[in-house]
Design a protein that fits this description.
- This protein is mainly alpha-helical.
- 73% of the residues lie in helices and 4% in strands.
- It has 17 helices and 4 strands.
- Strands 1-2-4-3 form a 4-stranded mixed sheet.
- Helix 6 packs antiparallel against helix 7.
- The protein is globular.
Amino acid sequence: MPKLLLVILLLAPFVAWDAASYVMRQRGDTSPVRKAEVLRHFSEQQIATGHDHLLRHNKLVPFYRVIFYLFYGALLFAGLAGRLESSLLGLTSERWWLALPLFVLVLLVAQTLIYLPLSAYREFVIEREMGLSTITAGTWVADRAKSLAMNWVIVTLVALPVLWLVRSLPGSWPLPASGVILALSAFGIWISPWVIDPLFNKFTPLEDTRLEDDIRALSTGAGLSVDKVYVMDASRRSLYLNAYFTGMGNSRRVVLYDTLVKECSHEEILSVVAHELGHWKHRHITKGFLLEVLGVTVGLWLLWWLLNSVGFRGFFGLSGTGSLSLIVLLPFLLSLTGTVLSPAVSAVSRHFEHQADAESLELTGNPDAFISLEKRLVRHAKADLLRHPLLHAVYGSHPLPEQRIIRAESWKAAR
């Protein structure tokens, strides 16, 4: 069978899903019952604003998808990755460990430049017109440069030991490679609050001592010890509201967006922090990491099996099992696999979020603050309130806003 036909057969289902997703985003949920439920909590204007925000982003999606297919198609199926690998190996006298960082750098620079116009339009036209973006051109350019440098270092540090294992242990590399990847992932989570996050934002201790004391009291009620509460200067880039837990072990901390501190009431801030505490109490971080362990291990063993096929290597333009082009193949396959697994991943995420919501209500005992916070988050984010039900099932990482409000109302009525 001709290679071009095989490529078409491989990509056709994903292209068809991209087209269907685009249409579903344009239409939204047309059910009058669903709209009536949403209108119990939000206005017609909020519904219209949220859909307008979605439509503005949706018009960029086809461009992103076309670039994705062309970029990886040229590298893998047209042989550009193989030619780049050969050139760099020649330049470094066949020392693959010297060629690899250059290979990664060329790919990341090319990818950054290709997507740059769309990223700029999204930030400075769509988000600015919606009143959500506050970032300056200088900060935006600096962020792109720092992200590029950081990704280059991270991908290189991961790829070097993994590719060495692939070349050194051709019959058994998946298990030790999984260990390397997961160890580096855990190390990244631990070091991120100290090294990575400060590259992009400034973090200062929370000045509101009453709020800090109440957050510590909440953490004690959840069975956790939180010593550090920081405020992040998120308003330098956008007006979105958020709070999160980050780090691991002695780097663990609570981070509040400065927009959250400024816009939300004391009770609303405690509600969102209690939600994040709920994730910790239910060990969602640990469970997510265990799922990552399972996914990485199974995925690498499957890749090992496929790489043993000469036909598979030839189809994707790999010179051998230890080819540098694996660095291109892996994100391509992960993207396609991610689309297939999205319904299951999203269902798990929604379950986790539901548990965290329930814990937030139990810890604060304040459903009114929970409801007012949910409405404020929707209003500030200009969120789409009538998302197509199939898209929500596939990609929805959180329960729908009205579902969260209804559960809080039920919790209140039961007390």
